[in-house]
UniProtKB/TrEMBL annotation:
SUPFAM superfamilies assigned: S-adenosyl-L-methionine-dependent methyltransferases
Protein species of origin: Terriglobus roseus
Main enzyme class: transferase
GO MF term set: arsenite methyltransferase activity
Enzyme nomenclature, EC number: 2.1.1.137
Ranges for domain Methyltransferase: 65-203
Keyword entries, A-Z: Methyltransferase, S-adenosyl-L-methionine, Transferase
Stated family: Belongs to the methyltransferase superfamily. Arsenite methyltransferase family.
Protein name: Arsenite methyltransferase
Catalysed conversion reaction: arsenic triglutathione + 3 [thioredoxin]-dithiol + 3 S-adenosyl-L-methionine = trimethylarsine + 3 [thioredoxin]-disulfide + 3 glutathione + 3 S-adenosyl-L-homocysteine + 3 H(+); arsenic triglutathione + 2 [thioredoxin]-dithiol + 2 S-adenosyl-L-methionine + H2O = dimethylarsinous acid + 2 [thioredoxin]-disulfide + 3 glutathione + 2 S-adenosyl-L-homocysteine + 2 H(+); arsenic triglutathione + [thioredoxin]-dithiol + S-adenosyl-L-methionine + 2 H2O = methylarsonous acid + [thioredoxin]-disulfide + 3 glutathione + S-adenosyl-L-homocysteine + H(+)
UniProt GO BP: methylation
Keyword Transmembrane: no
């Protein structure tokens, strides 16, 4: 588990220190392929988008003015900044990410963009640094599949949500068996494929954590869209390096995440086994629990 987290942190840290942004045609194309409009992308800092999405959770979260929304694995802040506009000055949009460079990049964009209702915290998503029942909505974009201990993440989401609060997630889930080469590949794990779980297991995990009205829908998006970013991350941010480009080692690491995933996508048809999914669930209120029918009365007993 520690090895996985270290690898994820290293790869995504290198991406955070690169110049990947919506100013790169391929990065912008990936975001648009997974559901973001050109208007959404131009309304937020370009550096918030690095081509790491697999959907647009803010489109299904039904965010309202004054709400508190938390983005798990917030990266450069793409969904946090979009959410901030939807919840307004009276609401809060909070990003959680375990990678220091991502937090630094997101905070820099928040400062330059003049955002006053956003916050970013460094933490793993199985230990969310927020009080119980303090959040109206939890969103996440292609990150829950990276968590080694998904049941712990589901329980943490349930803990921080208010009764009646909701989960709106874009993620990768499995609908069949992955080829062995992908299932055992660390590059595929970091690339959001090998760590994914079956759609049925995803649903069971959320139900076990106490959620109701769980819906998981295959978006039908072509996962080969990730290949659009290849060869666009070779040069790091001057602000990070103090020069026009970072060291060759850092630049290579920044390129590796997208390049290795592109190689896998060219070799294997991951669309046959994996899917970009939209996940939605509700944390029940005490009234929901009090009026819940016994299992056998609803016909779910064996």
């Amino acid at each position: 588990m520690a090895e996985i987290l270290d690898s994820v942190r290293s790869k995504y840290g290198a991406v955070a220190e690169s110049t990947l942004s919506s100013n790169n045609a391929g990065v912008k194309a990936v975001a648009e392929a997974f559901g973001y409009s050109a208007e959404e992308l131009t309304s937020i800092p370009a550096e918030a988008n690095m081509g790491l999405s697999c959907g647009n959770p803010t489109a299904t979260a039904n965010l309202r003015r004054g709400e508190v929304v938390v983005d798990l694995g917030s990266g450069g802040g793409l969904d946090v900044f979009l959410a901030a506009k939807l919840v307004g000055p009276s609401g809060r949009a909070i990003g959680i990410d375990m990678t220091p460079a991502m937090i630094e990049r997101a905070r820099a964009s928040a400062a330059s963009g003049g955002y006053t209702n956003v916050e970013f915290y460094q933490s793993t998503i199985d230990r969310i640094p927020l009080p119980d029942a303090s959040v109206d909505c939890v969103i996440s974009n292609c990150v829950l599949n990276l968590a080694p201990d998904k049941p712990s993440v589901f329980r943490e989401i349930a803990r921080v949500l208010k009764p009646g609060g909701r989960l709106a997630v874009s993620d990768i889930a499995l609908k069949g068996e992955l080829p062995e080469a992908i299932a055992q590949s660390m590059a595929a794990y970091v690339g959001c494929i090998a760590g994914a779980i079956r759609i049925d297991d995803y649903r069971k995990g959320l139900l076990t954590a106490g959620f109701q009205h769980v819906e998981i829908v295959d978006s039908g998006t072509d996962l080969n869209a990730y290949a659009k970013v290849e060869n666009q991350s070779g040069c790091c941010s001057p602000a990070m390096s103090g020069d026009s480009c970072c060291s060759s080692a850092t630049a290579a690491n920044a390129t590796t995440l997208h390049a290795e995933l592109s190689d896998l996508l060219r070799t294997y048809d991951v669309n046959a086994a994996a899917a970009s999914v939209k996940v939605y669930a509700i944390k029940p209120t005490s009234a929901d629990i009090d009026h819940k029918e016994p299992c056998c009365a609803s016909g779910c007993c064996s």
